[in-house]
What we know:
Elements: H1 2-40, H2 44-59, E1 71-73, H3 83-89, E2 92-99, H4 110-118, E3 127-135, E4 138-146
Antiparallel strand pairs: 1-2, 2-3, 3-4
Amino acid sequence: MKRGFALLETIIVITFVCVSLLMLYATFTNMFDHSRRNILYDDSANIYKMFYLEEYLELNGLSHMINEASVVLTCNDFSFSSCSRLLDTLKIENLYLVKVGVKEEDGFSKGLIRYLNTLSNDVEYSYRLIGEFFIDGEYAYASIGVSEFA
Length: 150
């Protein structure tokens, strides 16, 4: 009788340990995926770059780009000659001016669409200036809100 109880007890303990390990594995996998996304999306260094870029662009003609549609910004859209050098210095591959709430549009890469789906729409500004950075072989994104111009 005692041998049968020990066998049953061992099977129950092994089952409990296996289920616990599976739950722990799922939790760590989820945490790892979220930390990887947090590295590629809205890194604090990239947000600072976007803040200073937005301030500079406001002084050099970003306000005329505001309309109802989302646009891909290029250096041809601005009146200053050092635009490409500025974007190269900040390591920005592409620059987008996107209306808040837009989740997908023609000309957007899959990575940008994934990034847009992570953003909240309950904000006080009407547009986002989004920078696409190419760092260590991967695209990273950061954005800053744009609402009014002087």
